[in-house]
Amino acid sequence: MTDPRPIGPTGVPCVGDAPLTVFAIARAIEGAGLLPEKIDAARRAHPTLTEDDARAAIELAEREPASLAPRPGLALLATLALPLGVGSIAFAVGSGLLATVVLGVVGLLALRAHGESAPGFPTALALRALCGALFLVVGVGLARLSKWARGLLVVVAVGGIVAAQTTSPVNFGALACGALAVLGVLLFLPAMNRWFTLEGRVSASALSCRPYHAAVAWMSLLGFSFGVTGAFKRLFQETGVALPATTQMLLVISDFLTDFAFALAPLTVLAVIFGFSPLLRVDVERRRGVFWAVNVAGFVAFVVVVWALVLPVVQLMQRL
Q1: Residue 21: which domain range?
Q2: Is 154 found in the same domain as 207?
Q3: In this model, does residue 223 exceed pLDDT 70?
Q4: What is the enclosing helix (H) or strand (E) of 43?
């Protein structure tokens, strides 16, 4: 019987020729009774696992449960937070872009229903949809620590900078894409590269990645919402619609972000990536609760922001 061996930057114990974490095996045997039942459950979940390796992993899981999910130091954690955080931001940006495409298509259909046209608008929507889809692909790739996602991130982020210039010479979105492009280059450094190996991916799988992804994605989506608030502000000013307190506060925050975009865009990206990195060290028994707490809080905050933008539009439509 082969004893579990440490794998990857965090030294997480693994078994098998294709490294499989003892943590993953421990999750697969939850609810099983006697040792033979646990071995059967582990091998059903992981068909490549031998009986001896399953037995060794189960014995370690029961003898030293704290060793299954290592708690790396903050310096090592930061090197993992960078690719995972950038991936979460890219996924959120892609989701936001595709959401605006859907709204744009609805608006375009409404215009055509009234016999009006918007020259160039369909092309702009198609480019935005392509950019959004590519950001989604990058986000998924980085979440899985795939090597190819690093190069694609740089290309897509540079494309985002160029596309954002069509709106205004300097804006928060362009600067955020610039920060993502720089971070994409940093992902090729040796300290980051170790996570993009098989051992690195296996090592990262034992950490609390889901709560971290959720927190960064929700914060990024909220930041994206602030970025599109400028278009609503022009609409509100031109129509003179009365704004509730939440909408006024949202516009103040958006103006602040716009005025200090040069400093705030890169700082915000770094703060979100590294500020939530301690979530990667959440204890095993608390991960599910933290994950749902983060998602509920993020969803509520996002709904408040969206409602603050939509409510004046609804009031305007009722006036018309």
Answers
A1: 5-67
A2: yes
A3: yes
A4: helix 35-45
Cα 41 from Cα 27, distance rounded (Å): 10
Among residues 67, 100, 120, the one where a domain terminates is 67
Whether 277 and 77 have beta carbons less than 8 Å apart is answered as yes
- In a shared domain, residues 106 and 231: yes
| CB-CB contact of 26 with 67 (8 Å) | no
Question: Of all residues in the chain, what percent carry a pLDDT higher than 90?
Answer: 18
Residues 312, 314, 318, 320, CA torsion sign: positive
Query: Structurally, how many domains does the chain consist of?
Result: 2
Q: Note the Cα 138 to chain centre separation in Å.
A: 10
pLDDT tens per residue across span 81-108: 999 999 999 998 888 888 878 877 877 7
Final residue in a domain of this structure, among 41, 67, 93: 67
Confidence at residue 166, expressed as pLDDT on a 0 to 100 scale: 58
Q: Which of 89, 257, 261, 268 is nearest to 175 (CA)?
A: 261
Q: What is the pLDDT of residues 59-70, one digit of tens each?
A: 888 787 777 777
